[in-house]
Amino acid sequence: MTRVALVTGGSRGIGAAISKALKAQGCEVAATYAGNDERATAFTDETGIKTYKWDVADYEACKNGIAQVEADLGPVDILVNNAGITRDAPFHKMTAEHWNAVIDTNLTGLFNMTHNVWGGMRERKFGRVISISSINGQKGQFAQVNYAAAKAGDIGFTKSLAQEGARAGITVNVVAPGYINTDMMSTIPEKIMDQIVGAIPVGRLGEAEEIARAVTFLASDDAGFITGSTLSANGGQYMV
Ligand code: CAA
């Protein structure tokens, strides 16, 4: 049976790897993006995966965008809440804009997206909701009060919603990546980056494809007994 998968932030970085991996598993995949038209077009040209532009922080945009995806591909069976941003700053320098941007995208985005597919999943008695949290939502991180709060919130969101979805055949899980080799790392100063890699027991950054494999497993029919879990993929940097 062909499943329809929707991946937010699905045309770059970890999201792109997830979109491609789900397609390789036989899913019909739609990927959203927020701003970078050029990268999205290149991604569609390369993969054949359709991309849709909207801001996950905007509830109405999510509602309308999901309606368009469902008109094009059919009901969404698998939702991957991957879209995320950073606005790192030590707390004394963090502004309300830094705080709101990160909470709106990385936490409220989960509500906006999931709320608009939840009714359909309940009716069809099947669904997979997988959200990408972070090691820093588990352990906290200097200069990431906003990001860690949102990513910890993603875990609480998941544990609660998993309880509601269980009887309806919907699993809700989180993958918590460690430091992965993507554009997001580019804002980290080199000296700090050396410290970070030094603290990863496997001695390297993760690759986006390694996160994608965790997601495809949780999205599979085989993972039906796994719900409310947090799957850490961080090279041993933090063990919970
Ligand atoms: N632990 C302890 N001290 C730290 C630190 C850390 N992790 N990171 C920075 N510092 C220190 C710096 O060494 C510096 O100290 P000195 O002044 O003594 O040299 C001080 O904090 C920074 O002070 P500044 O006022 O200069 O800070 P800034 O306004 O220039 O901000 C920064 C710099 C944003 C904190 C920058 O250091 C940085 O980006 N740090 C890394 C933050 C980080 O790890 N982000 C994760 C991004 S990846 C991600 O989010 C994906 C994921 O899910 C894992």
Task: Give your account of this protein's structure.
The protein has 240 residues and is an alpha/beta fold. The protein has a single domain (4-233), classed as 3-Layer(aba) Sandwich (Rossmann fold). Helices cover 48% and strands 15% of the residues. The chain contains eight helices and seven strands; from the N terminus they run βαβαβαβαβααβααβ. A seven-stranded parallel β-sheet has the order 3-2-1-4-5-6-7, with helices on both faces. β4, α4 (96-124) and β5 (127-132) form a beta-alpha-beta unit. The model has no long low-confidence stretch (mean pLDDT 97). Bound molecules: acetoacetyl-coenzyme A. Residues 86, 88-90, 93, 134-136, 141-144, 147, 179, 184-185, 187-189, 192 line the site of acetoacetyl-coenzyme A (CAA).
Keywords:
single chain, 240 residues, alpha/beta, seven-stranded parallel β-sheet, 7 strands, 48% helix, globular, binds acetoacetyl-coenzyme A
The class by helix and strand makeup works out as alpha/beta
Shape: globular
Gyration radius from CA atoms, angstroms: 17 Å
Largest sheet: 7 strands, parallel
Query: How many runs of DSSP E, i.e. beta strands?
Result: 7
CATH structural class: Alpha Beta
Bound molecules: acetoacetyl-coenzyme A
The fold-level CATH name is: Rossmann fold
Number of domains: 1
CATH homologous superfamily classification? NAD(P)-binding Rossmann-like Domain
Architecture (CATH level 2) name: 3-Layer(aba) Sandwich
User: Strands across the major sheet, in which order?
Assistant: 3-2-1-4-5-6-7
Poorly predicted residue ranges: none
Residue share in helix: 40-55%
Helix-strand string? EHEHEHEHEHHEHHE
Distance between termini?
35 Å
Strand content: 15-25%
Mean pLDDT: 97
